[in-house]
Fold these 3 entries.
Entry 1:
Amino acid sequence: MIIRSLLRALLSFAVASVPALACDGYATRVSSENHLQPKSVQVGRLADALNASPYSSGIQFASSIKRGDLLLDITSYPQQAPELGTIRALMQIGRLVDDGFEQLVLVDNGRPLFTVSREKLRQVGCRFNWPKNTGDNPLLLMTEMVASLRRANTGEVLVAGSSAAPHQVVAIVLNEINPLWAAPGNEQPQQLLEEEDLQLAALDQSLLAR
């Protein structure tokens, strides 16, 4: 049941865009749908595209470019928004945003928290299709995405390799990424969960499609 809920949650976002370039040089799950066209969102308009999406569950972003870094902040995370919305947004960005940056930096009020290279974003995002599951396994992609993140202050990875179990990755999202990136100054309540408790936790709000 928990795995089915995760799959449904990972496929529930969409960002409006227009057809553009392909994911040249990266494994790609091709789609003719406009909202899945690779590199179709200009890097300078990333936050506008995410915020305008009817499938963003009300999550609001702010973005800017600084010396090749694409800075992305969460300015509002409504209580009803899915808790996995943070990672889904990264997977979508990897497919949709153009090449006008070197790395994505997740920030909170200008303070760098986590980084991921454009290459790693592309490797995951170009294989992610939503809301229909016509791409690679969303749980495996989510694991790869989290494994690609590094702590901005030390450069350390959050998880060693991409072979971690999905419940371990979800624990990292809920216990480390969300409290730092999504929680400060926002409405989303944060609850620290032990890995063994995930099967019993009430995650409907964050894992079910909305």
Note: The CA atoms of residues 34 and 159 lie 33 Å apart.
Entry 2:
Amino acid sequence: MAEVHRSAPVAPRSEAPPAATSCTVPAEAAPAAAPPVYLQESPAAIGPDASFQIAIFSTGLIVPIGEYREHRWSRPPHPEGDEFSTDEEGARRQREYMLSLVGSTWYAPEADGRTRVLKAASVVPTDYFCQSGWALATVEGSHRDRKAQFEMGSGYALSLHPAGTTFDDPAPGSADAAAVDRMMREVFGDQESDMIAWLEEQRLKEAERRRAAAIARGAVVAKADDGGGEGHDDQKAKRTRASITPEERAAFPIETRIEMASFPGSEAAVYYITGNRSYEKLASNNCLEVSEFHGWIVKQGSDLRWMTKWVDVTDCDRGETHWATPLGVFRIGDDLFVLMSEGGYEYSRNTVYQIVGDRLEERLTGGGGGC
């Protein structure tokens, strides 16, 4: 039986959800929020025949991103339209779906091993990464600033308990963390060089395409243009060409961050590692060039193996990076799953991956937005 830490109950608050995301709600005094309720119980594997929903959670708001039923993942109604419906119709379907979940209970794992119990009290409009939509709100979230963005990568919740686990820093002095760090440093330079070579190849192809298009229009092209076409030298390409050599890059330090998660009863542990190396370029520019390494490693038994890795080569604006924030790990039967928020300069999403051997295989994507 789970040990429950509970405060004195408060009367539920009834609130009709707003009719549209643009509505205004009169200011009112928020009731005193009850202290959160926690379960003290170690998570266990979810039965393979179970049905449940998964959501991302942030500051009193719950956004369901998918459902597992009959051994399959599916995405709930979402605000953006498709070839069969408009954005307005998509938002209406999402709101109706959210209304059907008012009163539902969710379980959000926390880093200290406890599970927070969440109760959906109402439906409220929210914005996340240039995308407007609807969210379930706890009493706390019902009085949240409507202009505030939903914070991606904050946490997650399941509609059943036992829930999953979260990512955290490895134990101090961890031999596995040291090994993960060495694995990253061994491949950083090659990954970085391969990305730089690919970017240069794409830049030259684009320059040639622009030059051919200019000639086809009858423009006078005095020489091959290796920049933006028609005499325009692309500044980012110029900075790339002026970058220091791979040998010089290797002399600069790499700042690393390692996060890990494991699941009780499972031999596997999952590591997410990032490495950042920044340096001045030969071109006179105050914006440092940055190489960002991202990688996922799984430990099964005593073996540490790469599942995926990549390097983004960018500068201080980080406009070309693909970021990831690990949220948690959970089990369905004998299968281990990883949930992460990820995105780039103009988009975000939440993705469930299944660990299959030494691979991450996508099973569900939802709850993001794009500009």
Note: The helical segments are 87-99, 139-142, 175-216, 235-241, 246-249.
Entry 3:
Amino acid sequence: MPSNEKELKNKKSCSNCAYAMPTDSATTSYRCGYSYYMQPAVTRKQERMDTYPEVAHDANCGHWSDHVQSILE
């Protein structure tokens, strides 16, 4: 694996965020699913993909996580 690929994998960015939702409906190929994952699992309902904001693979925000919080933790 080239060094720049390793750096991208270790960097906190949308491409390796647990909340990122890969999709064909975004020009960037990613949408942020933070609002989806913050709903209780029992009542969670996915909306149309265009309701989730498009994000670039190298973007980041304060919601970044490497795993989705669950009630089992």
Note: The longest helix spans residues 3-10.
